[in-house]
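Can't attach files on this board, so I'm pasting raw text. These are the components:
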Amino acid sequence: MIINLDPVFLARIQFAFTISFHIIFPAFTIGLASWLAVLEWRWLKTGNTVYEEVYRMWVKIFAVTFGMGVVSGVVMSFQFGTNWSVFSDRAGNVLGPLLGYEVLTAFFLEASFLGVMLFGWNRVSPKMHFAATVIVAVGTLISAFWILSANSWMQTPQGYQVGADGLLYPTDWIKIIFNPSFPYRFLHMVTASYLTTAFVVGGIGAHYLWRNRHVKHARVMLGMAMIMAIFVAPIQAVMGDFHGLNTLQHQPAKVAAMEGIWETEQGAPLRLFGWPDQEDEKTKYAIEIPKLSSLILTHDLNGEVKGLKEWPKDERPPVALVFWSFRIMVGIGVLMIFTGITAAILFLRKQLFTKRWFHLWCMAMTPAGFVTVLAGWFVTEIGRQPYIVYGVIRTAKTISPVMGSQVALSLLAFIFSYVFIFGAGSYYILRLIGKGPGIPENAYGTHGVKEPPLFTDLTSESGGKHV
Amino acid sequence: MFSLEGFVDLPLVWYGLIATAIFLYVLLDGFDLGVGILFPFAPSDSCRNRMMNSIAPFWDGNETWLVLGGGGMFAAFPLAYAILMPALYMPIILMLIGLIFRGVAFEFRFKATGRSRRLWDYSFHFGSLGATFMQGMVLGAFVQGIKIQGRSFAGGAFDWLNAYSVMVGMALVFGYALLGATWLVMKTDGITQDWARKCAGYVLGYVGIFLGLVSISMPMMNTDVKTLWFSLPNFFYLLPIPLSALVMLVMIWRGLHKGKEHLPFFMSIGVFLTGYLGLGISLWPWLVPFNVSFRQAAAVPESQSLLLVGTIVMLPLILGYVGYCYYLFRGKSSDETLY
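---
Top answer:
Structure tokens for the assembled complex are below.
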């Protein structure tokens, strides 16, 4: 039975699983690294040790998250070859250098200076330590640059030609790197990372305020997080809109799936909810707002939006998954904007740090960024199916010459390992959060003083001491 | 489009670069995997803390060389990458899972208390051991040759598994253990160092035996390799390689006994270099033995050129700041939590 498993299906599941698991960590660490740089800058500038203590608490969480990101990322660099070797062969000439540049310009930078950031307290000057934090933050952004360029090229390929042997050959690197969807995807993803981090930090800050612990630190966390929610969440909506318009131009089938539109329509309504049925080729039980879809997509009430029936059945993505992921992404995005507006109002009324219902709300929003990022990637990755390089190479044709059973076993091994690791990692992060910021009194303030071992530290403090 | 094809022999340069990246990976991750292999045998928890601290700032950077080796091969020799990965599917997946369990142990171990700390100690040990063994199996399968058809791997799912690859797997475990032990001799003192010195002496014998076994078996398995090494005058040209390995093994032995702290580690690197050279010479010019040469597997000149420019600019920088980090964390490691 295990012998007859379909390797293509299993390899898809495996890639979806390992990449979804992996993206959680960079989505968080890209934002967190930048925030840590800001925190350290504030601390060096003002000498206020609250910033230092918040930094020292979050840098530990950063280390745990980054570690999990590294090990799950190493897996990704081999996955192209183990499961999708035909893809590696056919697209290697184009994509290889982009991934190579990611390693050369980002990975070494991050890995080396993370060591300085974590272990260098007593060995480098405060300025050098700050520099290390900034370098790690920049490294995460460079890494995002290259990997999103590679991903975007697979969505909107250009600057290549297909050889007689079926291999893709590069003809213009600038066109390849700066392909049409790349700027939008890059900005949209980096902003998403910043928001993800903001809502995690804000949620934890709100948690402390709710419990009346570490109030000084909690105000820094919630305050800075809400600055992001107030200003960046609306910008993200605008950028998302631009990204969507870009997708409409280059991948209209994806947009049709996002909107659940089957027939080409003028003045297409926006389907708020519904059940897209791939077999019947219609979106059932739809709740519609007339003409809104045309307005959003074409900026014209009666603009034409192409329906899925324009494409043959075997060129359509799985509609329901794309449709629903898109709604989850947009829905949570709207909640983020509302959180920002509420925070702004509360701040102006000087109630941001005292309104307990708002703290409870922020606590509930803690995982919002992760869900949104995953949903967004589901939209873009499932929406470009059945192609791995859009319009050029079909995903199903790029599978390695391996047996279904091999892929199944490795998938099980990854699921087991990741669940175990993720469980442990989450547990330790929760414990760090439970412990909270602040270090014993005699070690306050300077770079030069060593901290006592962590685990005695954990048992000696029962919380609430540094409020 | 931009290409350096007319100026340099691109496939050859890239063959050299990838070989260097993989060698640096073997050395650098080799010593920290070796520390993981020796980990549970250390005399006390305080020793284990020291061991962990001696590699904690470096392991992440060390593992990046593996990503460079893999990513670089994908970029410069996509055909070889596309054939080797499916051919070595299972050992590579198992290696990755080993690396996951040992990688997270660095962070989790210092955050765990009581018995759960034991769990991460073993996760670190078995992860390191498993990853090393699988790397050795990959090497063992690689040198025996890979079956291909057209542009794809055409062998079976278990081609990589046989007595020979198991033997090479064990050889690498002892090899990394030697690097790890001599690293600890250099980076620790007191009872940790005494213990590491004993370990190094113990594994040194096995390294010598396995090195001999692999050196003898390679020419026996393949007649081309045999003629390469044993025909005249090649024999005399190549003789310095095994001879210098022998000399260095003896120097490690004497260094350990004379209480030298740095020499054993650097001589161990030397032993690895001779082994690696020997392999490289035997397998020249194959990138997928014995079917696809590095020239056949090369990406188009445009792709190799683009990445070469980046490499020329970035590699010295990388070596510079990696060196800075090793300099920064020089000296003996302590058993305290570092941050």
